[in-house]
Amino acid sequence: MLTLKENEKIGRYSVNHLIKQSVFNGTYKVSDDEGKAYFMKFFEVGKVPEKMLQDGVVREIVQSRDIRHENVISYVDDGETDRDGAKYQYLICDFLRGKLLSEFLESEGCFPVDVAKNVLLGILEGLRYLLGKDLLHNDICPRNIILEESGKDNYIPRIIDLGHLGGYVHGTPTFPVEDLNLLYSAPETLSGFFEWNSDVFSAAALLYTMIAGKAPWDCELGSSESYADRKRKVRNARREELDTAVLREKGAAEDLVNLIVRGLDITSKRCSMEEFYDALTGKAAVEKPKSDGGHPHKTEEGKRDGGQEEEGHTTAKVQIKKRSGGGFADVAGMDNLKDELTKRVIWILRDKEKAEKYRLMPPNGMVLYGPPGCGKTYFAEKFAEESGFNFSLVNGSDLGSVYIHGTQGKIADLFKKAEQNAPTILCFDEFDSFVPSRGSEAAQHRPEEVNEFLGQLNNCAKKGIFVIGTTNRLDLIDPAVLRKGRMDLHIEIPAPDAATRKLMFEHHLKGRPLADDIDTDALAAMTDNYAASDIAFIVNEASMMAALADELVSQSHIVNSVKSNRSSLGKRDDRPRIGFK
Questions:
Q1: Does the pLDDT of residue 222 top 90, yes or no?
Q2: Residues 336, 473: one domain?
Q3: Which among 24, 22, 83 is positioned nearest to 50, based on CA atoms?
Q4: What is the Cα–Cα distance from 159 to 424, expressed in whole angstroms?
């Protein structure tokens, strides 16, 4: 990166001195012809990552052009110039006089509670302004706040460094993440999710730091450590209980402690920007977080007698636990499908570090659809065994309730339990009965339940939840459920082909007393368009006949059973191959 010299002219500005420099940009103090001071960010366009450009212009410059606010560094000018055959673009912003918050904390240690609150209110004003433009700062931390003194113990905070500015991100951000201060980064951002309340976490962490004199879940992060190592350290630190006692020791009232804990909640229960702001200004009461000893990870369960549902207690009666079994080894055939799911889903869920290295996001869920009896639910169970994650098979009766909106509450409770036991696979059997199309007669009396499902399915993968839905009627499911970001994968499980039927016969016959004349190739040929459940029934019935006659299970026993049991799928139609949609 080119280093500009003192008094060098860039447009109508003269360079005073370099403040800091990176691989593709440098920050300078400059002045105009009248001697007025400004900040200048100077970009070498050829070195700026493509994702940080918008129509050939550095995205930070484009986004800054419309920013004018007392608590945010504001745009003044921008331009373009050439140096030694390379193209450069520059951004001119207000020159802010004051000290970085990080410098204040280094010298003072911490702030009185009232001073810290007033500083944060100014920061929140700036963040709310950016949010009104559908922008997130994404790197709120002590080094990105300048404090200008305005009387004794009174400071005007200004947010600087808009290099990570952007909107809602689910996947690959349009800015570098390696230079983020991870002690102040919301948990979801460590997995590539920059959401509308992610800056709330950072603001709450900043308030905690100003009062406590240390970052929440503080840990030592070396500048030479890799981004992945720093993330691992931060995640491990956040498994411990948050130290709220230090806030009380510094004079923070209980309402303020509760508000900070709500802002630092690592789950979807974190408050919004407006809720945080209103509570800090006293416009709204602070809701006490449901936590155990101030630990945002631990939420309380409602107490009820004998597991009976009481009005106001909408708890889903499901078990979430690991399954034991052989996984995909127990599934006859379907090798292409097993291979695809191993590559596209299981390894991403297992190897989070590698997935993060390549910026791969795990899918949110999948729908297994096809004729009845073809092993969709069985396949889901074996998928759970193969992944090694916790599993719950959910039927309609598990979420039923006699109370108005009771089912809606049970859905929310189920996803909360799944998150607490993450990583978890939730399998909804006959998924179309849970989320029928909202224009259908089936959904007209319970739109709130479908809407609750839609909300819970939104990006639930980031909470460690993978959803599987099984259905015979994909066309009956609400289209909003099937879009990307909810049920990402649509996988058909058709009637087994001949090779799979042969393997199914071998699988179900294994361990039984067999005659020497068993010909599974012939049996597979006889059972064209038979479902997996049909084959299991045929083998069991043939074994029953052999047992009653006290004989070995023979080919004739099985053939007779095939002849007496028609396919539950009816006549064979042209079947599409297993595929992803």
A1: no
A2: yes
A3: 24
A4: 39
Asked if 411 and 480 sit in the same domain, the reply is yes
Taking the C-alpha atoms of residue 331 and residue 412, their distance in angstroms, rounded to an integer, is: 33
Q: What DSSP assignment string belongs to 142-198?
A: GGGEEEEE-STT-EEEEE---TT-BS-EESS-SS--TTS-GGGS-GGGGGTEE-TTH
Calculate the average pLDDT of the chain: 84
Whether 54 has a pLDDT exceeding 60, the answer reads yes
Residue 214's CATH number = 1.10.510.10
DSSP state of 375: S
Given this model, what pLDDT does residue 580 score?
Answer: 42
Is residue 27 within a helix (H) or strand (E), and if so which, with residue range?
Answer: strand 25-31
Q: How far apart are CA 259 and CA 246, in angstroms?
A: 15
Instruction: Residue 60: give the domain boundaries.
Output: 9-94
326-351 pLDDT tens trace: 888 888 777 888 888 888 888 887 77
Task: Give the three-state DSSP class for 346.
Answer: helix
Q: What is the pLDDT of residue 312?
A: 38
**Cα angle: 36, vertex 79, 173; to 5 degrees:** 110
Across 547-554, average pLDDT? 92
Token pair for 298:
């631990």
Residue 289 falls within a domain, yes or no? Answer: no
Shared-domain flag, residues 137 and 188: yes
CA angle 494, 491, 373 (to 5 degrees): 35
> Rounded to the nearest 5°, which phi and psi values hold at 76?
-120, -45
How many CA within 13 A on the CB side of residue 106? 7
Query: Is the Cβ–Cβ distance between 534 and 567 less than 8 Å?
Result: yes
Burial 70-97 (b: 16+ CB within 10 A, else e): ebbbebbebeeeeeeeeebbbbbbbbbe
Cβ burial, residue 158 (10 Å; 0-12/13-18/19+): buried
Q: What is the pLDDT of residue 315?
A: 53
User: What order do you get walking across the sheet with 321-322 strand by strand?
Assistant: 321-322, 390-394, 424-428, 465-471, 365-369, 489-492
Residue (of 298, 256, 293, 259) closest to 276 by Cα position: 259
Query: Phi, psi at residue 472, to the nearest 5°?
Result: -90, -15
Residue type, 418: A
What's the number of domains the chain is made of? 4
pLDDT tens digits for range 87-106? 999 999 998 888 899 999 99
**Residues 80 and 166 occupy one common structural domain:** no
Cα separation, 225 vs 342, in Å, equals 31
Residue (of 131, 138, 102) closest to 213 by Cα position: 102
Q: Say if residues 174 and 133 touch (Cβ distance below 8 Å).
A: no
